[in-house]
Batch of 4 targets.
Target 1
Amino acid sequence: EGTGTTLIEGDYDAFRNYDGDKLWAIFNQNEMNYDIDREEGEPSLAEMSSKAIKMLSKNRKGFFLMVEGSIVDYADHANDPAGVVSDLLAFDEAVKVSLDFAKKDRNTTVVVITDHGCGAMNLGRKGYSSYSARGLADALGSLPDYKRTSYGMEKELQAIRPYEYRQKVLELLGIDLTDEEEQALMRLSEETEADYMKVGSTENIQSMLARIMTSRTSISFGTTTHTGEDVFMAIYNPHDQRPEGWHTNLEINRYVADVMGIRKPMRDYTMEYFIPHTELLEGTEYTIGEDEFGEPQLEFALADGRAVKVPAGSCFVTVGDSVRQLVLPAVYISQNGTFYLTRDFISQIR
């Protein structure tokens, strides 16, 4: 409220036809679906990127846009090859949208990078010999035929009875289950895992589906957790001004700041605008609990007794019975259990 932003919830046509300047469009309760699990009326990452670029490029001063292909990480934790490949391809389409605009605009830099590796996915596995003569199609096996990820397939199986599993798997994955695989899925029919980071390392129906799907390929995974290798980076700059070789995340931040014309180091801005809650609330009793979604939340009371609840990563704070909007979000760093708030935070919420 009060920002001039249009909110669209689950209305694909309204999203496609919107022609204003400020939009917040939501299509799911939490994250978007995997690309091959997308339901009718849910835009692709490329389409959302195109819409954002069209809106933001109206600003003659320029813009900064971050596009994240996020749940490929979920697929890696689950060791699900369909989720990994399909969402990387969807991300690639979003990159193409960005590059097409940048090359036409001739004043836009595109940085493609990831924060970490996960899963250690490989083309090839134990016993897979003479790979150089087999070709890609042989390595991928049944993967191109999959019409669902293991997560999407889990949802399909939850909607039917266990004796229908074999036919549904054949229909959507092209896999004719063995008797042992069918029995394993039936045994795990009630076993689900809500924490995406634990799917691949626990016994549940999604992890079993992922293993079955992987077994029809020559793909292998080395782990169900994050990995520590150097990560991929690609940069397009119309003037070929780009870093090459190995760089830390701080150096990439500096590069992005430079091409945007920001001369002051980001740390200086942080120190100028933000202060740890321990300093801001010195002498005030506070607790760090959880909000309704299980995320960290800072709680304390003002001098007049009104309770204040500050959710991590949010611009909206509850003060007594009302909600106040902050200029900048409350940042929470889990490593040191600290909230970072703007120095004028108290005056903003009074």
Target 2
Amino acid sequence: VVLLVNLLVVRAKEINSKPSGLKFVENKGQWNEAVKYKSEFNRGAVFLEKTGFTFLINHKEDLKNRHSILHEKESNLSKAIMRSHAYKVNFIGANVDALVNGESRCKEYNNYFIGNDQSKWASNVPLFKEIRYHQIYNGIDLLAHSNGDRFKYDFIVKVGVDPSVIALQYEGLNKMHIENGHLVMKTSVGEIRELAPYSYQKIDDQLIEVPCEFKLKNNRVTFLFPNGWNQNYELI
């Protein structure tokens, strides 16, 4: 099951240069210990935790104003007001001891030397293009990556495993509903969408699409497969 979160101010097709994709930065002590990896996009950031994600979304107009202030001859960032909204996606019933590790390591790295407390400093912090949650549910992996500059995550369901165990609880939203198959989330800084899920199987070297839909009840999201799937093959 492939989930694509549409969080960008500017869509990839509107950018002249080819999108480089998101980078996921490992937490080496520079952030709260609950965070395993973090990735930034031009609307905010996503924090990857053991059993869920936390999204930080910034107001579009505030981002534009800050950009304008930064390009003034005598810029004064104290004039830049930034309104933000955070919400969580919790994986209900997930394995709290699931192994979370980076894949496709990038050549570059980050250093964090902020403030006087050296215990909060971190050097040679690695970046990755993908993060894998091994056995987030029994027989199910989760792969976090990106499509251009949009955050994306896949549930990889092994043969013989029932994907109905996957359940996502959304916390901290003003409101949410399904519209034309997409998950629409209302926040204090605007509307966010998760595009309708796309599911497929690889059978005899061919990608076979498997119809899949969101099911929403009390801010809890699960997945429906109205036509079923071939249970002899892995489901993504």
Target 3
Amino acid sequence: VLFGGAAGPGKSHAARWALYRRCLRQPGYEAVLLRRTFPELEKTHLRRMATEGPLIGAEFIESKRLMKFPNGSLIECGHMDDEAGLQKWLSTEYHAIVPDEGSTFDPDRLLELSTRARRLSPDGTEKGKFWVVSNPGGPASSMLLDFFIDHTPDFEKYPRLQGKYDPAQWEYIPALLDDNPYLDEDYDTSLAVLQPWRYDQLRHGDWRVFSGQFFGTFNERRHVRDLGDLGGDTRWFRSLDWGHNKPGCWGWWAILPDGRLYKRSDRKFMGESVQVNAEHLKTKTRELNIAKVTYNVADPSVFIKTGLVGAREARFIGQSIGETFGLNGVTVVRGDNDRYN
């Protein structure tokens, strides 16, 4: 679970008390609560756990950074400041692992850490829990967006995840500023000094804005909509930027009656034959409940014939990628590859 978004809803507080509840309910429950650095851990969690321990009937052992419960449950606290820090947490399996401000972690370390949240709960009802608590922004932010929100992990980077990634196992629970009724009324005003992209991250929990963004005016609240029931006047087309040794992408587009285009979905791929790619295309179109596609537009490069013969006269022979798509039930037309537009 990715829990977060805006700054101020009380995410760190919620993470601690969610673990307290599980530890109190299930004897022998073992969890670990992490921050990227020790100073962050001390300021955010250690001081508060020392005062919260008596409230829940548990003992906080400061020297061990450990909350110990009478029923044998425990919460370890730590950080991942260096490689040694990571290896410490990889040596044991836990019922729950909670990286706080997970977007500040190294993305690959964060994913590797998730593999240790694999113990079945003491009462036998739950698999291991991996809860990332975070605002947008930081080295792992785009990975969290891909895995938890868009459900489009980079299979080029994680090839063995292909066919094994289950979107239902990666859930996002947004946390907004307005969710916290105890927050100071001036908190929103204090964020106004930030640059626009950072303000949108911390005020609105926007995971799609970042520093140096090409489309700096993109705003999820304004440019993303629920298409709902589009009716019979809406037409659909698909767009292709072919790639084999490098990534390629299909896009599914709705042409609304008012002339606007909305990109419903996309599919990134690499290393697939045209035949396999065409089957994936048809399958995903069915999954999107799109009954009819008006046309498919492709990069002009897919119409180049493959193979060369003749030393003096370079004659192209064979079949173009576009023609091969046609033989596999996907007719493509030549697009305009003006990249700016």
Target 4
Amino acid sequence: LDSKTYYRETMIHQVIDEVEKLGAYDLGLYKPASYLYNYVESYYDAPYQANSYAYITDSIPFISLVLSGSMKLYTPNLNYSSNLDLMKLKMIEYNLRPSFIVTSKEGYELRNTNHEYLLSTEYNVWESSIKDMYNEVSVLENINGQYMESHRYIADQVAEVIYETHMIYVNYSDVDYVVNGKLVPAFGYLVTEVIK
């Protein structure tokens, strides 16, 4: 190691120079720094809730809201989610794609390897859940590449998200909700076209 001092700005420019060389590839990164957003096609491990500090009243993932439509956003690995139904609604609300980590063998066969931290990853166990999740969130294909124009809660636990061509309502409550004469089922969602 040399004893030369490297400043943050210098390193940022060096990283950008290296990433620009990968311009021919659809680059996907885990939680990339903001100075790399222009070069990223896919953002892995995108936030689906806020940091949950005591002074925050709503659990809104700012980064996911801002980047929606400018790149593909993927959830953290859903193998470790305790409530896939809740995650489905979060994905629909924030325009996130599902992400799973899978292996061909059972998790116990990874013991004493560098991957022994991977639990519950056998594809045969997860196959139906993965297919169901991808089918369920396929409603997001209608808004692919569109920026989120508005996001707000129109009632307690009912979110309204507006894109250029579609509106999405997500109901986290256990009571049906009616908006503009249409039903948003309890713990469900509704996708409608924007009326112009």
